[in-house]
Amino acid sequence: MDQIITPEIKELVRRYKEIWSLNYALSLLGWDMETYMPPNSSKERGEVRGNLRTQVQSIYTHPEFISLVENAKPQNDVERGIIRVLKRQIKYYTKLPREFIEEEERTTTKAFQVWREAKEKSDFQMFQPMLEDIVDLERRKADYLGYEDHPYDALLDIYEEGLTVKRCDEMFSVAPQISDLFKRAKERYPDRHPLEDEPYDMVFLKRLIESVLTVLGFDFSRGRIDVSPHPFTIEMGLYDIRITVRYEGKDFRRALMAAVHEFGHATYEMNISEDLWATPVQRGVSMGVHESQSRFWENVVGRSRYFVERFHDQMIMALPFLRDYDLDDIYRYLTLVRPELIRVEADEVQYVLHIYLRYKLEKDLIEGNLKVSELPQVWNDFMDRLIGVRPSKDSLGVLQDIHWAHASIGYFPTYAIGSMFAAQLYEKLNMRNLIENKDYSRIMTILKERIHKWGSVYPPDELMKRASGEYLNPNYFLSYLRDKYLS
Amino acid sequence: MDQIITPEIKELVRRYKEIWSLNYALSLLGWDMETYMPPNSSKERGEVRGNLRTQVQSIYTHPEFISLVENAKPQNDVERGIIRVLKRQIKYYTKLPREFIEEEERTTTKAFQVWREAKEKSDFQMFQPMLEDIVDLERRKADYLGYEDHPYDALLDIYEEGLTVKRCDEMFSVAPQISDLFKRAKERYPDRHPLEDEPYDMVFLKRLIESVLTVLGFDFSRGRIDVSPHPFTIEMGLYDIRITVRYEGKDFRRALMAAVHEFGHATYEMNISEDLWATPVQRGVSMGVHESQSRFWENVVGRSRYFVERFHDQMIMALPFLRDYDLDDIYRYLTLVRPELIRVEADEVQYVLHIYLRYKLEKDLIEGNLKVSELPQVWNDFMDRLIGVRPSKDSLGVLQDIHWAHASIGYFPTYAIGSMFAAQLYEKLNMRNLIENKDYSRIMTILKERIHKWGSVYPPDELMKRASGEYLNPNYFLSYLRDKYLS
User: Fold this and answer.
1) What is the pLDDT of residues A207-247, one digit of tens each?
2) Distance of alpha carbon B293 from alpha carbon B268, whole angstroms
3) Whose C-alpha in A180, A323, B52, B68 is 20 to 30 A from the C-alpha of A71?
């Protein structure tokens, strides 16, 4: 890894440590909110987080700091990465007027409450005016941030540096083939698997998960597993990275596969080079690349026959009901293909179709080619065509996700990048043999060398090319699915 | 409660919110270190805490902030409290030169390691040169901070605002009587109580503690109980105050009484007026007053026959071995008097004698009337005279406490203030009846109105006088002990 040699960049990194320390604290405050915080602390905790975020912002926007960034002459890849990342941050803090950010916060705070109620009542019309405001806000946001070809590009770039409509259209060009593949695959599976209804003892499933993650390579000296309503990974620094799991009491694959998924996120952060510690590039580079790591471990490694073989002893020990099922039963349970209305319930075959739908609608909304009022009808028709199911009510359709209420328009496509790049790594890095041989340590070493250790030194598309020899190519995903589900 | 009306003080409180938010985060970072932090995160966590502390310091020492404090004209008690507290903080950050603070940090970091090893090997000579450096440092610190009568006054004031050698000498004037009382009381007790050896089921003791604290009035919507190597209380803000307990597997009074003790600290912080939220006076005013609250609940309420009566049902349920003991057995177990070499093992009768010894030695060290090399001999003689036991080795004597290695000279006397003021409240606020009637809610209301809600608005001695009608008077403690242990 390059060393930081330019004095101005050393000075920037020194100043950045204040931001890094505040972000470390903000992460712990966030983790605690989801795990152990007493129930009546939310409001006060919100004030603290808001205040610390303002302190972060005022360091980024200090004229001396900006001038150091703008005048820096980086000499190597690490230095270029640092300046690139800082410029991106400064852009968001300086291009969006304070009044706009406040308006967005007010609107999303209200929209979240309205969305929750509208979803409960399955009443889209209740949410419609809020969503109209949000679409309008996000179109203005795109104008503030600037773009070359398409206003949606400005929003996509927030979540995935450099992502554009053009690249999304290429990525989703395989959607019709995936839809066909899905419709053929689902014929091979039952409507429901008996293991979905087996209740488990939480204490033992927790032990199983700890044991599986230990074998896969989780470093418990720098991480932990806790319980929260929604599983997530959070990185404080390089030496404290935590994941959470939710135990629902039955259908054990949900908790187990979620843990393996979060393991993928966590090890990405754990494997970043110590040379980048406390610098602006000590962090996974993008949502899409992050999601490729979690999906690689969850879907490619975890939902495989070899994974079931490897962990069968521990599974039987933790979940005695598995004595009534053979390896093949468990594998089919982990890879069950069945049309789902809800994105987060979707198997890996149809998942990208759920994303494609959202991408298409977001793009049309931002372009102005689709009215918010038309969304439910278009959503339902699209689901019918792509996946072969039609929501009976909007809570099972257009109202299901929180993202739009949060004004996170442009976020969804990163999930598809994740699925697709995971398959590309599988193919291009010859992972098949290693997975068959359960050589998790070698797999991790390769991912670390090719991707993890670089942090945010390279932009995501460049990192993907360096790691796999090719920019993102959706055909690897297609062949991965075909081999796994149709052979 | 007075409102903040002076514009300059409003502005100060607005700026102080950055400090308050950073301190909130620092508290959570500290809590997490003792409870859930992964083992290899210590070094990184230390860097984060150091960086955030520097950010706090640079707000306090900003010339505009200092000038606002110095020129403020407070109009009422709350405003006067705010300015008083801020001036104290600024004093510590400005009177001690940066090089001195760094030297103190270096010395104590090393001293802590040396002390730990010296204690393990019971080798005072190993620790002696470090302690000599520390005494020297603390004498210089007193000079930097300034004092009127005695250099030790400057150090006492760090931990207890306004505390002096003169006041300590008054307080400890009852030491000979306490020593006599202790020697008579110990004759009434066996050397060991069989309940000390009863092992318990941790899961049930945890439930008992939660149940007892619920009855006493702990607000679980703004607090929690976790496990840590040493019990402590930590306040994030007004809506998140946590305690910890340690479960050793036998001798249940240790965990139970520690929980009641921490409950006393926690409710002090929880009961501070919301009008003081996020201001410099939203915090218990001093170590001594804090300790009076924890000791009031632990010793006066908890170690009483009425407490045993009130919680006997729950105790039997959680700890079935108690079916073989009657109420009186349990009460005697909670109040067992027996000479102890170790301060933290001491009963409430002899505890103040352990403190008196440390106070006397610290004072003589700072005065220069005692050499560090003479400490072990003087310590052992003193123990023999006061408590009637003599340490067989220095790990059971002069090496037992961490405080001196931390350069916390001046801290110990606050424990004695706690014991003594708890007894004064018992007498002067007519608590006897309420304790007999188990009216914990009324007790809490009185403590809240008289002490808690005021936060740091009044200095500790003034608060004690306002709360009890009298400045600290050690005779109440003497009569409390006499009634409880000799009648």
Assistant:
1) 999 999 999 999 999 999 999 999 999 999 999 999 999 99
2) 7
3) B52
| Longest pairwise C-alpha distance within chain A | 68
DSSP, residue by residue, B62-119: -HHHHHHHHH----SHHHHHHHHHHHHHHHHHHHS-HHHHHHHHHHHHHHHHHHHHHH
CA neighbours closer than 13 Å in the CB half-sphere of residue B485: 30
Is B21–A237 a contact, with Cβ atoms under 8 angstroms apart?
Answer: no
> How far apart, in whole angstroms, are the C-alpha atoms of residue A385 and residue B369?
92
| Nearest-CA distance A222 → chain B (Å) | 5
In chain B, which residue's Cα lies nearest the Cα of A42?
B239
Q: Residue type at B443?
A: I
Are A161 and A88 spatial neighbours (Cβ–Cβ below 8 Å)?
yes
Residue B471 contacts A where some CB pair is shorter than 8 Å: no
CB A415 within 8 A of CB A355: yes
Residues of B labelled as active-site residues: 262
Interfacial B residues in 265-304 facing A (CB < 8 Å):
278
A33 interfaces chain B, CB cutoff of 8 Å: no
- A1 inside 8 A of chain B by CB: no
The pTM (predicted TM-score) of the whole model is 0.94
For A125, left (φ over 0), alpha (ψ -120 to 50), or beta? alpha
Residue with structure tokens 């998924």?
Answer: A261
Q: Determine contact: A15 vs chain B, CB below 8 A.
A: no
What CA–CA distance (Å, rounded) separates A350 from A343?
9
Res B216 pLDDT > 90: yes
Q: What is the DSSP string of A276-327?
A: GTTSTT-S-S-HHHHHHHHHIIIIIIITSHHHHHHHHHHHHHH-GGGGGS-H
Which residues does chain B have within 8 Å of residue A226's beta carbon, measured at their own beta carbons? 36
Q: Is B227 on the interface with A (CB under 8 A)?
A: no
Question: Facing residues of B234 across strands?
Answer: B242
C-alpha to C-alpha distance for A175 and B357, rounded to whole angstroms: 80
- Complex ipTM over 0.90: yes
Nearest to A54 by CA among A101, A87, A114: A101
- Beta bridge partners, A241, equal A223, A235
C-alpha A304/C-alpha A309 separation (Å) is: 9
Residues in chain B with CB shorter than 8 Å from the CB of A239 are 38, 40-41, 43-45
The DSSP 8-state label assigned to residue B187 in this structure reads G
Closest chain A residue by Cα to residue B223: A38
Strands A233-235 and A241-245: antiparallel
Chain B residues inside the 8 Å CB shell of A41 = 222, 236-237, 239-240
Give the whole-angstrom CA distance, residue A246 versus residue A228.
Answer: 6
Domains of chain B: 7-95 (1.20.58), 190-336+413-486 (1.10.1370.30)
> A–B: how many Cβ contacts below 8 A?
110
pLDDT in tens, B152-189: 999 999 999 999 999 999 999 999 999 999 999 999 99
Which residues in chain A have their CB less than 8 angstroms from residue B24's CB? 48
